[in-house]
Amino acid sequence: MPSFRALQRANQRKTIALLFGLALLIWLISFAAMTYFGGQGIGIIPIAVAISLISVWGSYYASDKLVVKMTGAKVIEESDNPKLFNLVREVCIASGAPMPKVAIVIDPAPNAFATGRDPEHALIAFTTGILEVMERDELQGVVAHEMAHVLNRDTLVSAVAATSAGAIALMSDFLMRTLWFGGRRDRSNSNPILILLSLVVILLAPIAALLIRSAISRKRESLADATAVEFTRNPTGLRKALEVLARDSTVVAAKSTAVAHIWIESPLDGKAVSQLFATHPPIQERIATLRRLEAGGF
Prior knowledge:
Layout: H1 4-37, H2 39-42, H3 44-61, H4 63-71, E1 74-76, H5 82-95, E2 101-105, E3 112-115, E4 123-127, H6 128-133, H7 136-151, H8 154-180, H9 192-232, H10 235-247, H11 283-295
Parallel strand pairs: 2-4
Antiparallel strand pairs: 1-2, 3-4
């Protein structure tokens, strides 16, 4: 039987491996650019990286404000919902985290999310739907899952993955436009097989980057589930919460791709062409993992 610590270590190792994969992909597309375009290709690399850094990291530092605006969440005070604040404070004490801001999203679909660049700037939001349908131990599991995202610095991990994937996509787009408008080196003395492989890399790198970014998101969700069990020592609560979400077919109104990955249950994964592009593991798979933790005494 797995333990939550073993699951945490496994997901952390896989995240590191996937981030290394993104770095390798950047190297591959850089090499392909130089091979196919020569000196014209190398100048595109810093431009693409700079654009990605500015766009993604600007969003990272203002992540709590941006997500609140995009989801329609309203920050509340303790007097507005003392029971919810007490529940969040319990998990903070168990995890050693500072108290985050608490927000409510007026939406009948049960869901929740966490955001913020670090524990000192964290925010946890709950839909009105999740507060209505879940019992205390279930909601405690949800709070622990979201606090796990905060303490595992998942906003930071997502920003690194988004920067890398964005740079790859921009590099590929720039290179394809250069190719379309006739920019190319003199390839009379070049290896035709290497040239062909370079073109394939340029074409497929954005898809590969998206696949890796999605896989990183799934591993961070699994890590958050395992870390939540560490905080509460009660896999049953989170397992029951996920079962409630699995039975409910309603979807939150804020379901754009920009914020789909932050919810405890993604509103878009059911519409994914392939599970390979999903940001969350299948909810039944997560439930099965928590059941194994229950059976093994975690």
